[in-house]
Each structure stands twice: as structure tokens, then as C-alpha cells.
Amino acid sequence: MVTIHPQYIKDSAGNNLVVLSQNDFDALIEELEELEDIRLYDKAKNGKQEFVAAEEAFKEIEEKRKKR
What we know:
Blueprint: E1 7-10, E2 16-19, H1 22-46, H2 54-67
Antiparallel strand pairs: 1-2
């Protein structure tokens, strides 16, 4: 878990804003990206997936590249 130290300010319209240091922001983004990876992994793991041999996958990728 990331520990962040937000600061809260109000803009001229009275809306609340949150200010983070660059380090806190970067850590938060890194955590969100990791969470997204975990969710995608879980979705792939739980879904009905057809597995393809690596050689076949590379062949398909190369064929798609040539068509561009």
C-alpha cells in the first residue's frame, strides 16, 4: 500500500482540489497500473481462453504486420 501526503486547497470557485508531490503521484500511478494488470490477469484466467502455441502466435503476428 502506498502512503501519500495530500494537501487540500480550494480554487477561486470554492471547489476542493488535491495536491500531491511528484513522488506521491508517481507511486499512486504505479499502484493503479499494477491493479489494472492484476484485473486483466484475473479476467483472462477466469475466461474461456483458447491457448495458442508461441510459434503459431508469432506467425500470426508476422502475417498481420506484413498486411499493413
